[in-house]
Amino acid sequence: MIYTEKIKLPAPDINEILRYAGVREADGGLLSAVDECLAQVLDYGKVCYAQVPVAIEENKVIFNFGEVESKALAHSLMGCNEAVIFACTLGMEFDAVLRRYSLTDVSKAVVMQAVGTERIETLCDAFMEKFSTKTRRFSPGYGDLSLEFQKEITSFLDCYKKIGLSLGGSLIMSPSKSVTAIFGLGKEDCSKRDCCLCEMWECPYRKE
Amino acid sequence: MGIREDLKSKKLFLDGSMGTLLQNMGLKPGELPEKWNITHPEVITEIHKNYFDAGANIVCTNTFGANSLKFGNELEEIIACAITNAKKARELSSGSQNKYIALDIGPLGRLLKPYGDLDFEEAVSVYSETVNLGVKYGVDLIFIETMSDSYETKAAVLAAKENSELPVFVSNAYGEDGKLLTGATPEAMAVMLEGLGVDALGANCSLGPKQLMPIFESLISVSSVPVFAKPNAGLPRAEGGKVLFDVTPAEFAEEMKNLAHMGVMIYGGCCGTTPDYIRETFRSVSTVPFKCIEKKDKTLVSSYTHSVEIGEFPVLIGERINPTGKKRFKGAILENDMDYILKEGLSQQDKKIHILDVNVGLPGIDEAEFLKRTVFQLQSVINTPLQIDTSDFSAMEKAMRIYNGKPMVNSVNGKMESMERVFPLVKKYGGVVVALTLDEKGIPATAEGRVEIAKNILRVAEGYGIDKKDIVFDTLCLSVSADKNGALATLEALKTIRNELGCNTVLGVSNVSFGLPERDILNGVFFSLALNNGLSAGIINPHSFEIMKAYYSFLLLKGLDENCGNYIDFMGSVVREAVVSEKAVTVTGEAEEPLADAIIKGLKDRAAALCDELLKSNEPLEIVNKHIVPALDTVGKGFENKTVYLPQLLMSAEAAKSAFEKIKVFILEKGGAQEKKCKVVIATVKGDIHDIGKNIVKVLLENYGFSVIDLGKDVSPEAIAEAVAKEEAPLCGLSALMTTTVPAMEETVALIHKAAPYCKVMVGGAVLTREFAEKIGADCYGKDAMEAVRYAEKVYIEL
To answer: Do B654 and A107 touch (CB under 8 A)?
Structure first.
């Protein structure tokens, strides 16, 4: 069965927001822009998920709703018999505010963008907290897991109906601040996100 | 005999869930239920038959997700089999009730623009394919259900109406907050759907019958067409691998009976309901006497979020989106400067107007295309209902078609030709139309003459099936300087139409003072008089203190302002604004160059105010070169040296922009034109719907004096190449965010180089690198916005 939940968001991490906005030192004007943007984000997000059996055959990961070829995902889920597939979103109100800022004040749009990134990552973390022994989350587009796999995830989870998340023709998700991901159960690894899986070497947000 | 007759005389019953039953019969996760029409026809037929046997008059085919986006070439077979299965069930069922087969249509599962990337007309054509197949294989009605977006709902209804004569039932899925996913209230949906001419409307899915009760209450309060209910069997829970629901058939039936007493006329079930639920509901609701829904006579318009009533409580219609007499606005239309127009809308929304008038008519432009684009863009940032204001009928139709709600339309008049053109549009798309009391003979001088025309307009409208609630009369206010009794005739006609014909009224208030000094004062007093004579809506300038003062005072004195709240809020905002503008000019710093200092610090209002001051005694070019450009340089270099960060760079850019805006208005008023460096076409490529990066580049390029032609986002390679060639632009900037859209960028670069070999192409975006940019044939890779500006300057110098 697919579960749908509304999850309350914990307090924001201002330093993370500034990092996403490309700022190392913030002045008063910037901090008040961050506050203004934060005030316009809902304090909850929506998640839909399912707990499913998983099997690994070499580089192939087999779920009950479909299978996918990915060495990195197979490695991450190795040793797990069950996985959680989830999708979450901040909702389309966020995009409406962003569209408006894009028009009236593009500097706020940049800050809003950063706020959204921090909020959706926090939402993922908050959701995952209720599972005790788990791997780190893995999304289509990480390593060699194809973005195409989004199609199967969103269709299996019935994302449009459950949380209003839809996939566009070029695999862009709407609303923009949304995540789809998979994590394994019954095995522990560092569940904090890190950059070692990613091949975007020149990414300005890369953490060493 | 038929559904439309049945709706007038009896309660009707719908079926219950299909999906829940199929899952219990072995439909696997990820398997498409529509395929079972072909692979398990006997199962589907049996389910339909059980619903007919339980008392359903209408069963929905198993075609919820049957559209060409999902099934491509298989679509016809799926729909044909689905309808065959339902027909077989109808034959097999022993029930003696009237039995109908509905073509079931659900959401496409892809969000429409501006929320997602699916075009409105594309959605209409996808739905049209499904509808045409339903008609071909012989259904009795179209059942559009579980729609969570008002815009997509409209696309589906248009497809149903344009491709069939069949009755159309429409049902939306409301969330726990009582609204659709994209924000519409039940009232807004009922207003739009009734305008589109559906036969019945309702709500299904999401919640149980009890929780949906307030939704039905709202629908019934505004709808004049029958309302139906198809709730879930409460909330789902998993038990031993099966999904169970918490409301039993008997409890469900009891709640449905309550809904019947409330005025719901058609009853069925959604997720979790089975033939047992329908049988119980049939039994319990049968004891409630049939009562047809009451006709409502409220004048209502809607946006994609809410409805606005024009009636006892007078409403404000913002008039500022209109080029008449405004050089800056004309310039914006001619230069395709959509941002300026949108900001004009936003600033009026901030003044709490209820409806926004949209007039972009100007000789020499393709008004139909431009109005359509303006309406689309406005409704992506503003949720105020719009008044489509044009004398070009083709522009009117295009705008009404893509409008997300029931619009106000300005205008029709007593001339036969006007009514023959406008009324069919109002009938098809829905709308409240402003009717001017003039005809072939012109504007009658007397109030009686105008009232006579109004009566004639009502007669003709009735012939088109348009109710008088959807007509609002404008008794035409002309300049009092031309005719001393003109205002009196207007007011007299207004009063008669309101009191004797029982219709609502509207006036363009500002015309009264044309040609006179201190127009605002006269407008304000006239507005008060009109309100007191029964004006239902004023087309006004919300930035005028005299007008707003008259309005809030009137509300207060007429007992329409609970606890004086609106009046106090308004006066508070007046005081706050005065303080802000005072502060913008008078804050004194030690800075030698206050304007440059304001730009560097990113103070928007202050930069604008200081620039205004400087314009009193300096040439525009001097201000640009001495104050603005040096400030921009300081910030730009700071950014390049990493002492200034992107948001700060952009705050300065916005401050500079507000100063430039003052200069632009100043030059336009003097009849001059601003000098620009060269044209730069920019766009986000096909498939990409995020455009912040592009907008950043745009603001900076404009700051540095380039004439930027912004094509927007998700733009096809052909459209970009065409624009570059047409504008003969020496530079084009493209952005892409996703790896999946980089091929579109590559294609665009190639096409531009072919169509306009002289044009340099610079590219940027999160997934690009310098190497990649080279590989796809771009002339330059812009790592950030400043690099883009530096490259543009290089191109300009080398011209």
So the answer is: yes
